Automatic annotation (TrEMBL):
InterPro entries: AAA+_ATPase, ABC_transporter-like_ATP-bd, ABC_transporter-like_CS, P-loop_NTPase. Pfam families: ABC_tran (PF00005). This is ATP-binding cassette domain-containing protein. The keyword Nucleotide-binding applies. It comes from Sulfurimonas lithotrophica.
Amino acid sequence: MSIISVKNVETKFGERLIHEDLNLDIKKGDIYGLLGPSGCGKTTLLREMVMLQKYSRGSINVLGYDLNNITHDQAQSLRRQWGVLFQAGALFSSLSVAENIALGLEEYTDLDKKMIDEIVAFKINLVGLKQSDGELFPSQISGGMKKKAALARALALDPKLLFLDEPTSGLDPISARDFDSLILKLHELLGLTIVMVSHDLKSIYDTLDKIAVIDNKKIIYEGSLDNIKNQKSEFIRTFFKANL
Ligand SMILES: Nc1ncnc2c1ncn2[C@@H]1O[C@H](COP(=O)(O)OP(=O)(O)OP(=O)(O)O)[C@@H](O)[C@H]1O
């Protein structure tokens, strides 16, 4: 069953064409990677899937909703069903880790404070942080802890779908591998479908089930990593050189 279906999507910024006729299908339970050279439009596609960016042609269907024909209420309901961990979506520096995680629960639910506190404590534990970390502010925690806190925030509303934009970028190799393990654990534990943009080859091989490679405005490959070695693209050959 497709959780996300992208059909003939074209994206333009002014006269500049970024995507031309993109087609891809993400199945329930996949950990699906969007790869490609810098500037090919991976983040833009992710932003289109979560309604933060408009495309100029084609259609995107997410969890059964056609994003071209969606009411305000349906869009709100859809936003509750996914979690997002974007590079730019940093934690609010004036709020503690726990307050950051509680934000979505306060905005989208009418749960009382005691219930919200309990859910926040559960999510802190789920991502492998200590309860005492919840009282700290973003400036007081490491890069790896910030990613975990942002992940706990993304998971606050028990999403079915998780969008991650270069989740291991900026992390040292140990923290990056730790984050990969966490993603795999959460995928199994929560039955999530995960869409991830990544440049991290180790992370790509350790976590992804399926990939789409965008290059020169098009999807030049969609499939498993096993078949990647048969592809003739210059980007694929250079990028995967170490593993071919
Ligand atoms: N809001 C915008 N207005 C104009 N151009 C934009 C906008 N957002 C992105 N772009 C351009 O679209 C292209 C694709 O950007 P995008 O961030 O999606 O690439 P990417 O593949 O994620 O890159 P990277 O791997 O470096 O993060 C870039 O050339 C970027 O400058």
